[in-house]
Amino acid sequence: MSTLRWLTVTIGYFAIILPPIARILQRAGFSRWWCLFWAVPLVNIIAVWVLAFVSWPAIDMKRQ
């Protein structure tokens, strides 16, 4: 029963966390698929650093 409970909590967590992250990424000009990096431990930390220092397409488009 604990495996089912763990699976339910994990799916619930992803269902709550990933859609807002996908929306933020879309507004920044990135693909929504980037939100899957937040589901992988340690990769999510690298993804935050990459997004912090890479130029954002949505901001670049406003400057033109």
Structural commentary:
- With 64 residues, the protein is an all-alpha fold.
- It has one domain (2-63).
- The chain is built from three helices and no strands.
- The protein has helices at 2-28, 43-53, 57-63.
Give the SSE string. Answer: HHH
Please tell me the overall pLDDT.
Answer: 88
Percentage of residues in strands: under 5%
User: Structural class per helix/strand content?
Assistant: mainly alpha
Number of DSSP E strands: 0
Can you tag this structure with a few keywords?
mainly alpha; 0% strand; 3 helices; 64 residues; elongated
Overview in brief:
Helices cover about 70% and strands about 0% of the residues.
Map the helices and strands.
Layout: H1 2-28, H2 43-53, H3 57-63
